[in-house]
Amino acid sequence: MSIGVHNIGQGCVSCLDYDEHYILTFPNGYGRSILTVPWVELGGECNINCSKTGYSANIVFHTKPFYGGKKHRITAEIL
């Protein structure tokens, strides 16, 4: 049995020395195996953007498949 939380909204990380503001979204959160040995995992996509520099990144948090596979994997792309 699992519990899932869909995180909505966005956050802002400011780098004051460089006057940069990074806007980021949040991945979903999951509580897995809540009746036996519980563990937490993130899943979904997170985007980070800076309008001043034009830097952006897409981070994908991969959830563990039901059978096999590995926990806690991510892939990222910097644009």
From TrEMBL:
Gene3D superfamilies: 2.40.160.120. GO terms for molecular function: sterol binding. InterPro entries: OSBP_sf, Oxysterol-bd. The gene is LOC115939271. It comes from Leptonychotes weddellii (Weddell seal). SUPFAM superfamilies: Oxysterol-binding protein-like. GO terms for cellular component: cytosol; Golgi apparatus; membrane. It comes from the Eukaryota. PANTHER family: OXYSTEROL-BINDING PROTEIN-RELATED (PTHR10972), OXYSTEROL-BINDING PROTEIN-RELATED PROTEIN 9 (PTHR10972:SF200). This is Oxysterol-binding protein-related protein 9-like.
